[in-house]
Amino acid sequence: MVMKGKKGVILGIANKKSIAYGIAKACQEQGAQMAITFLSERFEKKLAPIAQELECGTRLYPCDVSKPEEIVALRESLKEDMGEIDFIVHSIAFAPKEGLSGRFVDTPKSAFNVAMEISVFSLVEVAKELKPILSKNASILTLSYYGGVKYVPNYNLMGVAKAALEMTVKYLAEDLGKDGIRVNAISAGPIKTLAAAGIGDFSFLLKWNVHHSPLKQNVTIDQVGNSGMYLLSDLSSGVTGEIHYVDSGYNIMGLPAVDFDEKGKASIAWNGE
Ligand code: NAP
Asked: Which residues sit with their C-beta closer than 6 Å to ligand 1?
């Protein structure tokens, strides 16, 4: 039981397809005690059975990260109900739909600002506001995607946000390292979730990843969950500021997968079907 005695909070469970749910399940299976958050009352009812299943009891709190007062209120509730906590999962992203398809040059300023606020700055704000209740060896984890490193069709504004998020992880890791707090990200391969549904022709990305990753498959929330649990646990006590890929190895590929004929001549292995 790697997480026995650990307590934490998970932000970003929308349903049982959420990456955050995969991480929460892996932590629970290893003995962690958790609280989870919901965005608005509309989602509270949906999350109640999930909180029950994860044995969170009544530890289900509102937290819209665009409202600083809700982050402060979250800290106060956690302090009262759990005391110190050992880990935070930040599995949150949002960009208005006009930032997730079409020409990047047309990205509206308002969409840009919203994406940066919800998907990037919220990590800094959550870390800052929850720091007073973090234990000495606490671990913070966020979620990124390869579209923050290289161009990915339609990922557009979210790619810029993920690039900023990955550097935010590194600067936070250096700063909070002074307090013994670790900060890491998982860069997950594409997974069909609610957030992913907002990205133009996401099903093409899923197919592309299967054909062009070394493992020839898409990752699951259980696989991301287990790696997340490792980064939140003391097993990774020497790891901080890391962007850890859980993507069937896709990020190592310099060229798309190719086939070789009998003369050793290479051709593209996939016809797009
Ligand atoms: P998801 O299930 O839709 O989770 C996204 C979560 O962000 C939802 O719980 C959503 O809440 C929450 N959220 C949005 N705005 C918020 C706000 N203002 N305050 C608080 N919470 C807010 O999708 P997911 O794919 O698991 O996404 C989780 C993270 O993984 C994101 O950072 C995403 O970019 C990243 N990621 C996803 C993939 C993928 O292919 N799915 C790959 C790599 C990285 P509501 O649902 O209640 O709006």
From this structure: 12-14, 18-20, 39, 43, 63-66, 91-94, 118, 143-145, 188, 190-191, 193-196
Q: pTM of whole model > 0.90? A: yes
User: Which atom of ligand 1 lies at the shortest distance from residue 158's CA?
Assistant: 34
Residues identified as active-site: 145, 155
Domain 7-197+218-248 -> CATH class: alpha beta
Atom of ligand 1 nearest to the CA of 221: 26
CA distance 27 to 21: 10
pLDDT in tens, 234-258: 999 999 999 999 999 999 999 988 8
- Name the burial class of residue 179, with classes exposed (0-12), middle (13-18) and buried (19+) by CB atoms within 10 angstroms of its CB: exposed
Half-sphere exposure of 254 (CA within 13 A, CB side): 0
